[in-house]
Amino acid sequence: MENKFIDSHAHLDDERFNKDREDVINALNENGIEAVLDPGADLNSSKLAVALADRYPFIYAAVGCHPHDSKFMNDDAMNTFRQLAKNKKVVGIGEIGLDYFYDNSDRETQKIWFREQIRLAKELDLPYIVHDRDAHEDVFRIMKEEHYDGTRGILHCYSSSVEMAKEFVKLGFYISLGGPVTFKKSKTPKLVAKEIPLDKLLIETDSPYLTPEPFRGKRNEPKYVRYVAEEIARIKEVPVEVIAENTRENFKKLFKL
Ligand SMILES: [Zn+2]
How far is the CA of 96 from the centre of ligand 1 (A)? Predict the structure, then answer.
């Protein structure tokens, strides 16, 4: 039987899918993909993600603003996210967080809107999806300071240490691994795959970015999430079906599906 995977993070709304989005989406099920979560990166992509979720039963959306674009955030945008989140297919707030690698928005602005959007997740009682690039300490500190009863969510495309991963799990988060776990040189994600228990792991592509081996360099698509699962299965020394099943169950539990 075909393994059924859930891709916990794919930007199907991205313009790199403009030419063949419908074909990619219509082929998901036959490619072994049971469901996909499309997180917003700004106001416009959040709206597009919700539109896709409205149209396809197996696509879910999150709404929020990526740290790159936090310089464009304001209260009106927050209100729009609040309105969009009334849609039943909107299951989370994200992706939100800090990115000190690109610094596309200044760090103080990133921090302000990370905090505000965590508070929105709390207000709406939704999980939130965290992007953390080279900002591990500040991400963890803010998440701890903003922690509340019922906090839950995903550290997406997790890139920090095993020790930090365990701390995030304690805060109520799942650790999602993507393409980098398949890269020969990226040792830390492989260690995380080994050490973090299966009931706390998710898999993702972050399509169209971060394409796993052996397709590195091509546009990423949800169907390649299989290669992420296969690498984790190899590391954990279990059949890939076990990874598929556990990550599906974790996803459904987190988002109450
Ligand atoms: Zn992303």
Answer: 9
Q: Which residues contact 235 (CB under 8 A, 6 or more apart)?
A: 181, 190, 193, 194
Task: Report whether 43 contacts 56 (CB < 8 A).
Answer: no
Q: Is CATH 3.30.200.210 the right assignment for the domain spanning 5-254? A: no
Angstrom CA distances, 197 to 32, 151, 190, 245, stand at 24, 19, 13, 14
Name the CA dihedral angle for 102, 39, 162, 34, rounded to a multiple of 10 degrees.
-140
**β-bridge partners, 155:** 130, 175
Query: Please, which residues have CB less than 5 A from ligand 1, an ion?
Result: 206
Map out the domains of the chain as residue ranges.
5-254
Q: CA–CA distance from 134 to each of 97, 99, 105, 160, 162 (Å)?
A: 11, 6, 14, 8, 15
Q: Distance, CA 10 to ligand 1 centroid (Å)?
A: 7
Residues 162-212 have pLDDT tens digits of 999 999 999 999 999 999 999 999 999 999 999 999 999 999 999 999 999
Residue 55 amino acid letter: R
CA of 155 relative to ligand 1 center, distance in Å: 11
Task: Tell me how far the alpha carbon of residue 204 lies from the centroid of ligand 1, in angstroms.
Answer: 9
Q: Among 164, 220, 217, which Cα is nearest to 189's?
A: 164
AA identity, residue 251: F
Which residues, 6 or more positions from 28, have their beta carbon under 8 angstroms from its beta carbon? 36, 58, 222, 223
pTM: 0.97
Residue 135 Cα to ligand 1 middle (Å): 16
Copy the structure tokens of residue 135: 């900002």
Ligand 1 centroid vs 38 CA: distance in angstroms? 8
